[in-house]
Amino acid sequence: MDLEKAKEAIESFTGQAEELIRNPGKLEELLQQFEEKVKEIPYAGDALSRVPLMISMIRSYITREYTVVSPKVIVTLVAAIIYLLKGNDLIPDNIPVVGYADDLAVFAAAFLIDEQELKAYSQWRDEKDAATV
After folding, report:
1. What is the pLDDT of residues 25-44, one digit of tens each?
2. Contact indicator for 48, 104 with CB cutoff of 8 Å
3. Please, are residues 101 and 91 in contact by the beta-carbon 8 Å criterion?
């Protein structure tokens, strides 16, 4: 899956993502499902290394603790999660090793789109944690 197809996959779930963002309870259920799903994916290197940061940023946005991020960024990240959990994979996940290639491509695209926002959130979180010590 190339970057353009990965972006299209994300865009196909933006409507659902926008709905979920307006319903924190359902969004939290999705985030929990996502955390479980990620545990099933074999070692994926850098593509999934920022998943905990992404989940943390979404949660901080929903609880209004961190609101300087663009709502479009949150929608993009939630759409990528929806794709992983509910999308019609181009490559079925049950095919060993390559079954998660499209999922990883979607996440790589989401991270590329939102990389600066994730860095800014990470810095904000680090500063917040340092202030509480």
Report:
1. 999 888 888 877 776 665 55
2. yes
3. yes
Average pLDDT over residues 53-58: 89
Structure tokens at 61: 């946005």
Q: Is the dihedral of CA 53, 36, 61, 132 positive or negative?
A: negative
Is 53:73 a contact under the CB 8 Å cutoff? Answer: no
Any idea which residue has 């299209």 for tokens? 8
Tokens 């789109």 identify what position?
Answer: 113
Please tell me the predicted confidence (pLDDT) of residue 97. 60
The pTM for the full model equals: 0.67
